[in-house]
Amino acid sequence: MPCLNLSTNVNLEGIDMSSILKEATFAVVDLIGKPEAHVRVMLKSSVPIALGGIEDPVAYGEVVSIGGLNLDVNKKLSAAISTILEAKLSVPPIRFFLKFYDTLGSNFGWNGTIL
């Protein structure tokens, strides 16, 4: 049940969001090793964000997963998502931060119960 939640100050009007979602989903599936059917990727655009008081293109993300995260995976996933954001949204890697949460199934509700 990995979830990648991305927020950016970039306006996505005229940008192929589907390709961003697909590439990010593939990166999560490939690197965390969870089934594609369980991976969620959210992309919020035009979010007021400044980094160091500068409003140039910037992005922030969080990955939540029940297992599958570790130092090696986190490094690779950070690089993969950073590459996608730079190519698709012109967000330089130095202006992208990604936070990782490895959690327990008991911390998630689903289908009227917990995982």
TrEMBL record:
Domain of life: Eukaryota
Name of this protein: Uncharacterized protein
Lineage: Eukaryota, Viridiplantae, Streptophyta, Embryophyta, Tracheophyta
